[in-house]
Amino acid sequence: MSALLEVRNLTKHFPVRRGVLRRTVGHVQAVTDVSFDVHAGETLAVVGESGCGKSTIGRALLRLIAPTAGTVTLDGTEVTALPDPALREMRRHMQIIFQDPFGSLNPRMSVAETLAEPLLLHGLATSANVRQKVAELLETCGLQPWHAARFPHEFSGGQRQRVGVARALATRPRLIVCDEPVSALDVSVQAQIVNLLQDLQASFGIAYVFISHDLAVVRHMADRVAVVYLGRVVEEAPTATLFATPRHPYTRSLIAAAPRPDPGLRSDRQPVRGDLPSALAPPPGCAFHPRCPMAEARCRTERPALRAVGGTSVACHFAEAVAESTTPAERPPSDRLRRRLDILQAARESREDPHA
Ligand SMILES: Nc1ncnc2c1ncn2[C@@H]1O[C@H](COP(=O)(O)OP(=O)(O)OP(=O)(O)O)[C@@H](O)[C@H]1O
Question: How far is the CA of 59 from the centre of ligand 1 (A)?
């Protein structure tokens, strides 16, 4: 079966300009040669540290920023080759949800106006039935029809994100890019939005590209995970495989670094050592080598290509050796991680039980 979304060698290098003449003095290599597939109804998580290129990938998929190179193909149509009018039509099938719905919702538009706009633009409602369609959308996303008259500032964070989800859902997309959709919310509200996204996926067969730095949410949500380091995919695997047998030392470090500690709570977290190098001048060879506990001479000069190792795609010269050593993932989950997974599970069960 061919994939719904095919991404091939996606690259985005931002020029850095200096001086009065705005001469280009370098390039921020935000995303380089990223390739992956997403099937209908599937969730692919894109994870990595802040600044590794996750949001740039998300925006380039929808051509909210123009890729430097590479192709994005949705359902057989090459999005990266479309002229503007056709691109606008195509966006009906690809939507995005941002971390901060405040930033993506127009504060001067009521929810009714916000949701009516895409419905009318894409011919999915008429002036005669648009109120009804807006009310249905709100109910589908766990809001009430009377919320239509409200403005973004009148909602709580969780409700506002539900409006963001409703706006993305309005055009009945095949794919939604979720860019850190729950990172700004309280943990209990996070679980509600995660469950809403899962329910919508089950009802409408939507595929998600789920961008997140939160491995607990990713583990709960994703079918497959792509791990990105300095703009390149360094490992991609089914979720269970990735957490049970991380094969890239960076993936191991990310898993060891999660969960993030709450103030006042003990944590067994081991932060990824060192800092993310500048994307202006990534290290030669394997870009992770300056931070890698397993790096050898070869890693400093020879960039490892992605290759298949035991059901995983991994870019490490020593992937087999990494998986053989005891992994951080094999330790029992910490109290905080267990508590978060319990909350996610409890929220899901309460939605399934109509009497709860
Ligand atoms: N418009 C831009 N111009 C120049 N550099 C940019 C631009 N947007 C992003 N970058 C750079 O590209 C790199 C990747 O940024 P990006 O926001 O995609 O990372 P991220 O993984 O999503 O991080 P975060 O989780 O903090 O949002 C960073 O080095 C960032 O500074």
Answer: 11
> Which of 313, 330, 351, 337 lies closest to 197, judged by CA?
351
Pocket test for ligand 1, best of 28, 57, 65, 232 (most atoms within 8 A of CB): 28
Count, residues in the chain:
356
The helix/strand/coil state of 241 is helix
In a domain, 238, yes or no: yes
Tell me how far the alpha carbon of residue 231 lies from the centroid of ligand 1, in angstroms: 9
pLDDT tens for the chain, 356 residues long, are: 689 999 999 999 999 998 888 888 889 999 999 999 999 999 999 999 999 999 999 999 999 999 999 999 999 999 999 999 899 889 999 999 998 877 788 999 999 999 999 999 999 999 999 999 999 999 999 999 999 999 999 999 999 999 999 999 999 999 999 999 998 898 889 999 999 999 999 999 999 999 999 999 999 999 999 999 999 999 999 999 999 999 999 999 999 887 654 444 445 566 777 788 889 999 999 999 999 989 999 999 999 999 999 889 999 999 988 766 654 444 445 555 556 666 666 665 665 554 43
Domain count, the chain: 1
Domain that holds residue 66: 1-18+25-93+179-184+199-260+280-285+298-356
ipTM of predicted complex = 0.97
Nearest Cα residue to atom 28 of ligand 1: 51
Report whether residue 277 contacts ligand 1, using a CB cutoff of 6 Å.
no
**H-type helices in 84-238, by residue range?**
84-90, 101-104, 111-121, 130-140, 157-169, 187-204, 215-221
Beta strands in 277-351 (DSSP E): 307-309, 312-314
133 in a structural domain: no
Name the residue of 14, 180, 260 whose CB sits within 8 Å of the most ligand 1 atoms, as the mutation to test its pocket.
Answer: 14
Judge whether 11 and 53 are in contact, CB under 8 Å.
no
64 within domain boundaries: yes
Q: Angle at CA 343, nearest 5°, toward 340 and 346?
A: 150
